[in-house]
Amino acid sequence: MTGSGADVAAVEAANTALYEALERGDLETLGELWAGGAQDVEVADGDVSVVHPGWPVLLGRSEVLRSYALIMASTEYIQFFLTDVEISVLGDTALVTCTENILSGGPAEEDGSVGPLIGGLVVATNVFHRGADGEWRLWARHGSPVLVEQDDEGPEPDEPLED
């Protein structure tokens, strides 16, 4: 991690707030966390971008927030466990890279129990900008799926490899 301790901690808090808002399906808070709004005039609306795994680049704050509204409307449950988090701060720009270990679920079963859960891995790059008010807001985000091959014929995880 590079940058002053206070800046790194503030960026880490902003990054955590992003994932918490996603888990709660809180579009209002998510909008406050993205740059380009009335509270952050240094970043133009059109300069904000997101790439969701498997999607094309979306440009503009309204398109970005619309994409999250669509995702939230079709996701019953989502939880992120972040690993490999690295934060670099240079002036008023911060870069966060991490692995998102995602657990998500579809609609609830007829009896009200949680629907089927699916796990996945995404590597993410989150770029933050510090506004004139001192707040760190997301400027750009890119997520790429991690393809994991399972070798049915390989050794069990606790078995030693043979020479």
From TrEMBL:
The lineage of its organism: Bacteria, Bacillati, Actinomycetota, Actinomycetes, Kitasatosporales. This is DUF4440 domain-containing protein. It comes from Streptomyces alkaliterrae. Residues 11-146 form the SnoaL-like domain. Gene3D superfamilies: 3.10.450.50. InterPro entries: NTF2-like_dom_sf (IPR032710), SnoaL-like (IPR037401). It holds the Pfam family SnoaL_3.
